[in-house]
Amino acid sequence: IDELHDLLTSKRGSQLLLNVGRLRQLSKSFRLVALSANISDIDKVKECISPDSRVCEAIIESIRDADIRVMYQGAREKYELMYEVVRGYGNALIFTNTRDEAEWLGSKLANLGLEVRVHHGSLSREERSTVEKLLKEGRINAVIATSSLELGIDVGYVPIVIQSSSPRQASKLLQRIGRSMHRIGMKAHGIIVTSRSLDDILESLVLARRTLEGNLEDLPIHYSPLDVLAHAIVGMSLEDVNGVKINDIFDLVRKVRVYENIDLSDVEALIGLLEELGYIKRLGDKIKGTEKGRLYYLKTTTIVDTSHYVVIDIVTNKRIGLLDEEFVILDLEGSDSIVLAGRPWRVVGLDDDHRKVLVEPLSEGEALIPSWVGETIPVHYKVAREVCGLRKLIALGYIPKIYQELIDNEALNYVKDIITSHLNRGFPLPTENLLLIEIVRGDHPLIIIHTCLGTNGNRGLGIVISKLLTDYLGVTPTLKIDPYRIILQLSASFSDEYLKHVIEKVFKVISQGDEKLVTNSLKRTRLFDYVLYKVLSRLGIVTPEQPRNVVRTLLL
After folding, report:
1. What is the pTM of this model?
2. Residues 248-281: b if buried by 16+ CB within 10 A, e if exposed
3. Which of 158, 447, 453, 482 could make an SS bond with 488 (beta carbons 3.0 to 4.6 A apart)?
4. Domain limits at 225?
């Protein structure tokens, strides 16, 4: 099993482990070899792939020798700095966090005279293969790619990897930097070219340190996913024309580490649902697959297809780019601002039926809280805490040597100037131990909560705060989050004193630690609808042709 870490972080991993368990039942003598360069907790993974037998380890104690530098774009455009780097090395592999940025950079670098190609998942397989061949043969100056070139592809000799802005995760940076000098004994070389954002610079610096020292993110393994188990149960029911005993299925499932805590009552309930859907028939203490179940088993996978929304400029009626469906469903609302094709836009309409986002250009001087500047790659809690801790160290005038060695002086001085200016104006500095709340007055007030919980932590907390503010104020806030802050915009104006009173009330309720508050808050969100749609798709209950709002109808 190659690139094991990439499988274990999704429900494909749960499906893989279940099928390995089924395979062991048929043949106990086979050997399993798993490969990965991105595992932080080897013991957890060993238990997952083989809970009942000995696992032999072949571990390289330190990561491959690498050199990573963080470079700040300064007064130049990012592509101008990248052009200088590519010219200096001859050729390069450039990674971006979005398809749109890959296309935009490709156009800009080509205009400067470089021979470049773009590589991402939206291109045809034939086009991607052609680009990979050109790169491997050294016939082009650069390939600009998203995660499509991270795993399992021999890119040949590439002297340098350039990452555009923070890669968001140390594991991603390790994988991407490892594409350079991809030969035994050769040192990998990587550069992160950051924007002028303080968060981008510090996050890139922290991720560079964590990558070089092997401090990778924990793998978010999925435990006891019932939609995956349903598919496996139907598969097992098809193995014997006389049916399969339910207790035998339960015994097999409990031996798989990610399902070791599942109860027989859960399996029985799931079997009841599958019988109701017509995928199996119950025959006393056995179940037997049906023809409908066979079709479901063969046609359904754990990978639910995600489509894209086309972004249209209503002024020129021209296509600007593409946004991932996940982002549009989770985070985009009318009047939001986004950054696309290198410039800011305001959303004026969403057309779910035709999968379009209608936008108009924003002038450079307009206030902007961009909703989207990259794919939904979450920043881990520990990374966010370290970024906020680094802010505090810089404010105290102490920068550990490890950070200084990774960043150029221009970028370091820029960061110092921003933090010093902030403190000189008398503002407190949000850190890993200081939560700061700002209220920005206006017809549509902003509540900005600076908290270093990472992407998922801030999303969860933001959803709960949004629900409570809706209950107390009678208006539903627009919610935006990033790894370092929660931003809520109200549709009506309130006095500062009243808002302060309500916010204190909100945090008092949250401090009681009621898990039902989190659950009930999530059920009111588009995030819940989106995840539920994917679960129902894996069960074959909904089809890609059906609109997303079908889940609300089913819930009713």
Report:
1. 0.86
2. ebbebbbebbbbeebeeebbeebbeebeebebbe
3. 447
4. 4-60+221-299
